[in-house]
């Protein structure tokens, strides 16, 4: 009797905890699926749930670029919510990131909705999911905290929802040809700066990611789900994932993915819903919403519902039935609830396996990664800032004997020693697997048919000389990075600062925005026994007048750049300040082309770079009206990657005449193809008629061989001409303005098989041999052709300059070493 009474009381308490909560339909005034909810409505609904249920804590964790709030809902029993901080700390204790033993046994499931804005159904499903959890599934919450992010990308989602509300028929038209099923450029997939937030988890280039990762790494859930949509005619996809699966993902992680998939299948089978598993969506690239959590000990998964931006409220599929928004909500709702169910039922095992994941280092050949400092503190500070965000441990070490290891720059085994301020990363640390995957020179591919890039090693991305060694070298000290001492400037003949990295470019941008006049040296210059390299910036009293140093002091301290006084125009070595080798730098007015015919992601990366990295004004011009723009108002024109289908012959001629009159044109990837087709510039696919003939023979041989390839093997045959984000070593002419501040070698991430021969002059960055392929998948035919090819170059045309960037140095904004290159193109290349 007592047990029955307690059960009854418990049931009454459970009912009381949600009795005042309105369902989505009651609160919104329409059934989910009848229309798209605005972001403010979603926020209001979650706030209503949190205010009326003691099973929900709602916390704002940030804002988007467009100032929309970002929220997390913590869903569990009142008892668990009361000790939420203890549960969080216990989770980190299991991972070895905090000292001590956990005293609670509650697992954590994190559900992320709508990372791609126009994959809009999942935010609708999040409202149905939280309501079901607190009304009918509260028993599952006794041993589980569910964290719900109802909309990872509000800015992109609102872009899509606004489009749909503006263009839908009444009530809606399922005909795929209707306007409501055709988003205009750039679509709602990406965030404000048109970044794909699902590729930004590890790199954290966007404000949404930065704020979310800060919270995520304080929790490290046992299960993480990223809700997506795919093509209209695709059935639902859920785990287990496809190959390639990274070799360090544990058997348990894959086994539990299968258990989850079988649980979903049970419900889908009951409803006669189609689905598929083990295809398309792999677990390799470390910056996805499934892989990044997986490499941090979670069961990380992607769920994909058919529909995406084309589906709207309903669309006719190939089977001639209509896929509705209500259908799509039901599918995502079902997998969300199913995920919580099986996670709760296996909570103890999830916690045990999670602890095991962090208990031993990765089974890696290499135990230690050493990055040579070479005195480049700015680059080292940028790297250590990122490592701190990731929770990756590092330090310095001393070694009395010579070591040997894999040399990232050559791909060979070499001897080396550890300098006193070299960065040492050992894999014997809690985040061993994440560390190893991010630093490993070559990722093992058990299947070359992959969904994304296959190389991302941090030493390449940051441009360090580095070694991976089998020796187990433990860091024994802290990096000694100097603390900036504020400048106190007094009137002087001039001031100078070196040109080594992005922070120097940011200071130059700020100086130019304040209308100070600057010069720069085209040759090394020695002042008071200190040598400044090419590109070093000089600000003189003669150019700016009395009092200039006050503005300069304020700016240099803001950007933490040390300025050195120049007390005479006569220098110890190199060109004097008044020399023609120290030219005046004209403040450039910069324009960036976007719109239909350009890659929205590449446009966004450049836009973000200009405003958020460099801090320099840029005018964005849409291809729709580009033909009517007076280019004479601009000094630099950036053509990001794209196909430029809207550019007529007349438009190309207009650009050509502008360059000839003195403009600097920066053409990236696909833009170069447009220039070539329009006979703008001398760049060509091949160096010589003989080489052209050789490559034509390769192509002819491939086409002949292709005739007899079985259909089932065609995809694998064709990847011989495919490059999946591979790293190539590029020889740089660092005496060229385009390469000021660089060493002799640069590591380029090649995401396109485009191949161009050397220019007659102005070859700034070139691949000299197929052997310069260092990491990542590149098909055998790609390697043959890309060997001996141009990567970066510039050529004169009339009074102007064309800068060629065959590889995009701003790709996804995480290739830190490419950012100075783009500043050089803007400020120096055409000056």
Describe the structure.
The protein is of the alpha/beta class and 831 residues long. The protein has four domains: 2-359, Aminopeptidase (3-Layer(aba) Sandwich); 369-469, no CATH class; 494-585, Alpha-Beta Plaits (2-Layer Sandwich); 590-827, 3-Layer(aba) Sandwich (Rossmann fold). Helices cover 34% and strands 19% of the residues. The strands form eight sheets. Strands 25, 26, 27, 28, 29, 30, 31, 32, 33 and 34 form a ten-stranded mixed β-sheet that branches. Helix 3 (39-52) packs parallel to helix 6, helix 6 crosses helix 12 (325-345) and helix 9 (251-270) crosses helix 12 (325-345).
Topology of helices and strands:
Blueprint: H1 2-18, H2 24-28, H3 39-52, E1 56-63, E2 69-75, H4 78-82, H5 84-94, E3 107-112, H6 121-135, E4 144-149, H7 154-167, H8 207-219, E5 223-230, E6 236-237, E7 242-245, H9 251-270, E8 275-276, E9 282-283, H10 291-295, E10 299-306, H11 308-311, E11 314-316, E12 322-324, H12 325-345, H13 347-359, E13 368-371, H14 377-390, E14 403-407, E15 413-416, E16 423-426, H15 432-439, H16 458-462, E17 466-469, E18 494-497, H17 502-513, E19 518-520, E20 525-527, E21 530-532, E22 537-540, H18 541-544, H19 548-558, E23 564-566, E24 584-585, E25 590-594, H20 600-614, E26 619-622, E27 636-639, H21 649-660, E28 664-668, H22 670-677, H23 689-706, H24 714-718, E29 723-732, E30 745-750, E31 763-767, E32 773-778, H25 780-786, E33 789-797, E34 800-805, H26 819-827
Parallel strand pairs: 3-4, 3-5, 5-10, 6-8, 7-9, 25-26, 25-27, 27-28, 28-34
Antiparallel strand pairs: 1-2, 2-4, 11-12, 13-16, 13-17, 14-15, 14-17, 18-22, 18-23, 19-22, 19-24, 20-21, 29-30, 29-31, 29-32, 31-33, 33-34
Helix pairs in contact: 3-6, 6-12, 9-12
């Amino acid at each position: 009797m007592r047990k029955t009474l307690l059960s009854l009381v418990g049931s009454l308490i459970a009912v009381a905890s949600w009795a005042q909560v309105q369902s989505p339909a009651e609160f919104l005034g329409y059934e989910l699926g009848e229309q798209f909810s605005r972001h403010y409505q979603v926020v209001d609904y979650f706030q209503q749930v949190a205010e009326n249920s003691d099973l929900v804590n709602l916390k704002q964790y940030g804002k988007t670029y467009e100032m929309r709030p970002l929220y997390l809902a913590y869903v569990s029993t009142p008892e668990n919510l009361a000790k939420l901080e203890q549960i969080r700390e216990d989770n980190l204790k299991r991972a070895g990131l905090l000292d001590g033993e956990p005293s609670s046994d509650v697992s954590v499931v994190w559900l992320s909705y709508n990372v791609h804005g126009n994959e809009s159904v999942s935010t609708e499903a999040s409202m149905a999911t939280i309501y079901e959890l607190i009304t009918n599934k509260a028993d599952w919450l006794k041993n589980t905290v569910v964290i719900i992010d109802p909309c990872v990308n509000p800015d992109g989602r609102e872009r899509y929802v606004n489009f749909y509300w503006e263009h839908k028929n009444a009530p809606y038209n399922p005909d795929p040809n209707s306007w409501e099923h055709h988003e205009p450029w750039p679509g709602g997939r990406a965030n404000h700066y048109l970044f794909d937030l699902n590729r930004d988890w590890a790199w954290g280039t966007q404000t949404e990611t930065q704020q979310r990762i800060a919270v995520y790494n304080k929790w490290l859930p046992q299960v993480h789900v990223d809700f997506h949509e795919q093509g209209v005619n695709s059935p639902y996809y859920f785990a287990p994932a496809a190959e390639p699966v990274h070799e360090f993902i544990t058997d348990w992680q894959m086994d539990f993915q299968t258990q989850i998939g079988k649980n979903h299948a049970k419900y889908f089978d009951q409803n006669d819903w189609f689905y598929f598993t083990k295809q398309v969506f792999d677990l390799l690239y470390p910056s996805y919403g499934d892989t990044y959590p997986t490499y941090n000990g979670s069961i990380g998964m992607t769920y994909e519902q058919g529909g995406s931006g084309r589906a709207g409220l309903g669309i006719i599929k190939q089977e001639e039935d209509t896929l509705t928004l209500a259908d799509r909500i039901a599918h995502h709702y079902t997998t969300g609830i199913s995920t919580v169910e099986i996670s709760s039922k296996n909570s103890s095992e999830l916690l045990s396996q999670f602890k095991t994941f962090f208990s031993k280092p990765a089974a890696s050949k290499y135990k230690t990664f050493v990055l040579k400092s070479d005195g480049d503190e700015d680059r080292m500070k940028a790297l250590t800032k990122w490592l701190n965000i990731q929770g990756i441990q590092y330090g310095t070490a001393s070694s009395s004997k010579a070591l040997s290891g894999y040399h990232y720059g050559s791909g060979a085994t070499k001897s080396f020693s550890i300098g006193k301020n070299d960065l040492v990363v050992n894999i014997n640390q809690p985040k061993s697997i994440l560390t190893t995957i991010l630093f490993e020179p070559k990722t093992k591919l058990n299947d070359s048919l992959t969904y994304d890039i296959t190389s991302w090693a941090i030493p390449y991305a940051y441009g360090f000389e580095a070694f991976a060694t089998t020796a187990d070298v433990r860091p024994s000290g802290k990096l000694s990075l100097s603390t900036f001492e504020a400048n106190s400037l007094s009137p002087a003949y001039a001031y100078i600062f070196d040109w080594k990295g992005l922070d120097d470019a940011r200071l130059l941008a700020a100086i130019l925005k304040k209308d100070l006049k600057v010069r720069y040296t085209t040759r090394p210059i020695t002042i008071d026994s200190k040598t400044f390299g090419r590109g070093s910036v000089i600000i003189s009293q003669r150019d700016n007048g009395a009092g200039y140093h006050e503005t300069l002091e304020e700016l240099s301290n803001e950007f933490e750049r040390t300025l050195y006084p120049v007390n005479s125009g006569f220098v110890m070595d190199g060109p004097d300040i008044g020399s023609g080798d120290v030219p005046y730098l004209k403040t450039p007015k910069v324009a960036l082309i976007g719109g239909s015919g350009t890659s929205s992601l590449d446009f966004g990366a450049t836009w973000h770079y200009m405003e958020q990295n460099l801090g320099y004004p840029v005018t964005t011009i849409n291809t729709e009206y580009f033909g009517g723009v007076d280019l004479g108002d601009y000094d630099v024109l950036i053509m990001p990657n794209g196909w430029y289908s809207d550019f007529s012959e007349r438009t190309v001629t207009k650009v050509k005449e502008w360059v000839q009159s003195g403009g600097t044109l920066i053409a990236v990837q696909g833009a170069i193809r447009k220039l070539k087709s329009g006979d703008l510039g001398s760049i060509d696919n091949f160096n010589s008629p003989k080489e052209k003939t050789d490559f034509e023979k390769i192509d002819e041989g491939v086409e002949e061989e292709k005739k007899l390839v079985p259909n089932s093997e065609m995809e694998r045959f064709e990847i011989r001409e495919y490059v999946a984000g591979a790293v190539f070593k590029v020889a740089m002419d660092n005496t060229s303005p385009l390469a000021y501040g660089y060493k002799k070698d640069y590591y380029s991430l090649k995401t396109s098989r485009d191949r161009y021969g050397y220019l007659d002059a102005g070859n700034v960055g070139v691949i000299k041999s197929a052997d310069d392929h260092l990491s990542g998948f590149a098909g055998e035919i790609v390697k043959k052709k890309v060997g001996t090819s141009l990567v970066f170059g510039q050529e004169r045309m009339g009074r102007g300059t064309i800068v060629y960037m065959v590889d995009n140095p701003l790709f996804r904004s995480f290739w830190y070493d490419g950012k100075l290159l783009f500043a050089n193109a803007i400020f120096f290349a055409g000056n």
